[in-house]
Prior knowledge:
1% strand
Amino acid sequence: MDTLLAGVQLLMRWDVALALLVGSVGGVIIGAIPGVGAAVAIAILLPATFSLDPIVGLTVLLGIYGSSMYGGAIPAILINTPGTAVNALTTYDGYPMTRRGESRRALSIAYSASFWGGVFGILCLIFLSPLLALIAPHFGSREIFLAALLGMVLVILAHRGQVFAAGMLAAFGILLHTVGLEPVKYTRRLTFEQSWLTGGFDLIVVVLGLFALSQAFLLLVDKDSQPAVARVEGSLLSSMKELWLYKRIATVAGSFGVLMGMIPGVGEFTAQFLSYTYARKTSKTPEQFGNGSVEGLISSEAANNAVPAAAMIPLLALGIPGEALTAMMLSVFYVHNVIPGPQLFQNQLDFVYALYIAMLLLNVIVIVFLLFSTNLMTRVIRIPSRFLGMIILTLGFVGVYSLRNSVVDCAIASAFGIFGLILKRLNLPIVPIVLGMVLGGIMETKLRTSMTRVKTPLDFVDRPIAAILALMILFVIALHIRTLRKEYKLKLSSAEQDTKRSDTHQG
């Protein structure tokens, strides 16, 4: 109880309250603008948060991370365009409801499901904290290395149909991390006698280029768009009680969100898919899914909003980010010498509780804000895309230059912006590059630390947690190979059937 009160005291400051308000409301606005998203906003704000207290900077970023999906549901429901990528499934049932003249009902249900998912995820996280505090100290260098390796494998395998590309891009991220001075003997690696490469590729410069500048370039080269959005009439409170009628679906969706959020590299898309599939299979009216089903809308929104809180588990307990946004937050921890991992729960549990309470409060602020300002958000959606691209481009360059007052950093960010634009045009993932840089650094440091006590390969997995993690890595790879073999056999049998039909038709 004393620790909880200490966490509350950390939040009872005017700058933390302002950060919470700006982050939560700003996240909704950013999420409501198609083509921006939380990753772009967090990338732009990262340099500014380095000069703030860690609780203030992280509160702003958590506010944007946790609230952007609320805003992303607005254009998904009203104009069939998801504000953030994870709101794509919301369009399946949200937009058909709008076409039936039920936009107010659809938004109300989406808000209440999102609120439930967010709060459910945070409550699960709070109850898991004592367990984390007991388990975390048992993670040594070997365990953290294997956990990071497991995260890397899961990130790569999560990109179904693009596993090879994701693996190559993750390897490219690891390669970027190795440029510059290595962390033990400070010898130069891959600098080719170029002084500007001695410091290596700064993570924030790469992130700003890949996310912010690439999105700005994409908005500037595409056709200008300014979608028309109709006003939402009536009170949004009236339909929120419908969530109680589907409490089983909402709880299961939130549970999927928590479970998938805890696993590095999985995240919102898998949580949504599993919860949506479960809702459709157990529904009495499965034919309505994709045509304006309330159950479908609840399952997708509750699942994706439960993920952000759960995604903080591997970050806080082990210092291992599960996706791009938590990887960006990790840099804020390091700048302020707050090291996530086993020691955080032992020495700074009040700080951890302050983050949890901040996440609970941001959900309350967001739901209150949306009840009174949804029509204001419809005006935000109408911002011309090229104007938006120019704003992102300007803020992105300001953020890059403010890091070290370096024109070279701006040139590097521009190069990565063009590279990110190419990847987006080719529909290839960007996230593996960032996680490759972050997890590659963790893996290198922990591997070199642990090798001093390892004489044979079996010594690396001679402890229970290390052995379990190693078996999980082998199991995940074996399961993926088994899935590939099944898919190959299905394609082969389908091709044989097509050949037989063709021969029968010719005969």
